[in-house]
């Protein structure tokens, strides 16, 4: 009898991670024999930890803060999404020990907004706050939904402009306007505002005025749980529909699971289960 395949999530901190719970539920729902654990990695030890896990026979890894950029660099091959974002959240270990990097974050975000929240992005005015790894992973999948306008706004404007420049080729032949705009220069109303900054974690103020939200707009924070509450409260105060990133977490995990196992697990029952578990605490 062979041992179940091993997978893990690598990060620092990692104790809070819901990924082991999510993938365990996915495995049960799809009759897949696997073990999935959380791995706390020293801040300067990602390379060594990754090599150790590969040698120990781990078949795949999720990668979270702060190692997504390093994961992309260390992989032997990279998907188009990783090449564009410069960040990886999913690693697939081949039979030869080679590591392939992918990024399912943006796919998870779009799936949660369009499928789970029922909000179409096509033809909409979308504001993306932040220009780090989370925003970089989201930009191409958001572009693929053909919004009318996609604005990237970051505290450091040059970083937002760099991110837009890296995606300039996607604008050619598309109906989407892609712009980097400084917070003070934002105008008009937005249908969807996505917070990909660390402001929630740091307890910082929301970086843009609530007057930019169209009535009933979707205000989406990639964080979930207590970290997302300030943004969700801000959204409610300005007549917007707030949504946290728990669905994004589940959907990106489903994409990663499909890459590893060749079967896409049902995400809806797992999201419902996690919501009820979070509400009980």
UniProtKB/TrEMBL annotation:
UniProt-recorded name of the protein: Shikimate dehydrogenase (NADP(+))
Gene3D superfamilies per UniProt: Leucine Dehydrogenase, chain A, domain 1 (3.40.50.10860), NAD(P)-binding Rossmann-like Domain (3.40.50.720)
Positions that bind shikimate: 17-19, 64, 89, 105, 224, 252
Function: Involved in the biosynthesis of the chorismate, which leads to the biosynthesis of aromatic amino acids. Catalyzes the reversible NADPH linked reduction of 3-dehydroshikimate (DHSA) to yield shikimate (SA).
Residues holding NADP(+): 80, 130-134, 154-159, 222, 245
Subunit structure: Homodimer.
Molecular function via GO: shikimate 3-dehydrogenase (NADP+) activity
N-terminal signal peptide: none
Highest taxon above the source species: Bacteria
UniProt entry keywords in alphabetical sequence: Amino-acid biosynthesis, Aromatic amino acid biosynthesis, NADP, Oxidoreductase
Domain SDH C-terminal, first and last residues per copy: 245-275
Catalytic site positions: 68 (proton acceptor)
Pfam families in UniProt: SDH_C, Shikimate_DH, Shikimate_dh_N
